[in-house]
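okkk here we go again. third time trying to get the adenosine-5'-diphosphate bound version out, last two times i messed up the smiles copy paste (missing a bracket lol). double checked this time i swear
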Amino acid sequence: MGEEVVHALRGVSFDILPGEFVTIMGTSGSGKTTMLNILGCMDKPSGGEYILDGEHVEKLNGNELASIRNRKIGFVFQNYNLLSRTTALENVELPLLYNPKVSPKERRELALEALNLVGLSDRISHFPNQLSGGQQQRVAIARALAGNPCLILADEATGNLDTKTSYEIMSIFQELNAKGKTIVFVTHEPDIATFSSRTLLLRDGLLRKDSVNSNIQNARAAFESMPSIEMVHLEESI
Amino acid sequence: MSAFSLLRIAFKALFRNRMRTFLSVLGIVIGVAAVITMVAMGEGSKKSIREKMTSMGTNAMTISPNYQRRGGVQLGANESRETLEEADVVALKTARYINAISPMVSASGQAVVGNNNWPVQLSGISSDYLKIRNYEIESGVMFDDEIDKMSKVCVIGQTIVKNLFPNENPLGKVIRYKGIPLKVIGTLKSKGTGDFGQDQDEVIFAPYKTVMRRFNATTEIRTLYVNTIGEGYASLASEEILNILKERRNWNRPSDPFRVRSQEEMIEMVSSTSQILSLVLTAIAGISLFVGGIGIMNIMYVSVTERTREIGLRMALGARPRDILLQFLFESVLISLFGGVAGILLGVVASSVVRKILEWPMSISLTSMLVSFGVCFITGVFFGWYPARKASRLDPIEALRFE
Ligand SMILES: Nc1ncnc2c1ncn2[C@@H]1O[C@H](COP(=O)(O)OP(=O)(O)O)[C@@H](O)[C@H]1O
Ligand SMILES: [Mg+2]
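finally!!
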């Protein structure tokens, strides 16, 4: 169509084992989102194969991909992507609507459970515009969790948040990981990567580095050691 | 995704854009109300024509000489005109598909009673005529075909009663018609105005032989009225009648000597004109429904574009293209069904207003309501289909990136 063909990813090959917490790092345009879209079954690679939980994803059709996204994957976006004028609870219920095996009663129970897990039990009937950025992202995490997926994917999920709230969000991811969830987390912030067990570094669509993190930081501790925002303002004004 | 969930999502989306929903519903409301009202008008006029017609007797047929005319000129001097005779009446009594027969001969003049006179046609008939034309005796009796063969008696309609006997009982009184006295032995129940605006109560009936011999001095019968044994026997009866009449005349020419016309044919003719009226009205109303449908399509396209990110999100969370398609289809169908229900209500109200103000005979049929409802459903699906399909074909990644 006269457009330049961009090979967003080339010759990338790696395995992610159940229970890993992997961060994908790289500069802007290095192919992180493209990678995550493929892992999330939103996009199919033009070549190569992707085996998720024993299934050859590149061979599946649109409906089968939709079903995999629904049952096996939980997605967390940088800009939360919550439905406006829809309560937190209904937002979390959303993926369950597309799973016919979940009854309306179960749907509500699962959603409440997920909201409880991210500490938002008292905010279930709030609309997104009544929640802070960090709370909105927690709703989004609850939504990703509700269907009990085996893989949680996050694309710069802390990108719109201040450092302290970022650490709070990372502590939730670490807790989920401790409970056995496999997590792939895209970020370009090096401090975020220190909370994961492994880091993939992309540059210009190539996998440059695959390193295991031997010194995993505790996000909860980092969060609690941070001064609150009001105090920062106070110190700056002094 | 369950129908209930789809319904809930659709309701929420429509409620969120109340004003917009209301306006697109309005398009359908007007369309449906127009359809209901127009159909009621068309059907009403058709029904009233039919009712009037049947007051004449649906099973009636007339037999008359077949004039071979073209452009008003009678063709062929040798084609002598066949006439109906009394012997034909006798012969036709054996026909299987007719159960009543009456000649119709007439004379014109004035009916005179004392100082009152009234210009009216004198109709010579036999007693079967009442049955064929749905006349009934109000008081007195009908003349008997055998006893009153040539008697100077008559049976009169209410208009004649009113004008010639304003303050007295006409029974036993005498009407002079062309100087000949006719004794009134019966009066007819009122039938009102006929199909062509004629007053059906302005009649004087006398035995046809009386009229033929005493008034016309002829043996020729111009017209025979017959009654078929039931609805739908018109063509059988017509064939049988022609065969009997031809047989009596050893007729072997290709053209028929007589022409048999059924009342059914007449009804068809008249109601086909009102059918056309009805069709035109309905077509106009249909167009407004179509325009309403385009309104829905327009609003659905706006809705799909506006909610591109939502669609992308739903797909990312596991909605299949089919789920998205149904979601938007439910919305458009809901809009058109709301419109349908409100339109039917408005149509019923409008119909009764038209009935009151224009005094038009309205006939609101359940069928037109059901059909309107069905059409609305189809309109919703039809006009919602393309926007919904557009939504379902979006690429989730692209849709999520949409600003
Ligand atoms: N829809 C697209 N059309 C063309 N090029 C694209 C598209 N999406 C991404 N790219 C290109 O692919 C490369 C990788 O993009 P992306 O995966 O979004 O990078 P990152 O998330 O690391 O910033 C970039 O060079 C970008 O310009
Ligand atoms: Mg990106």
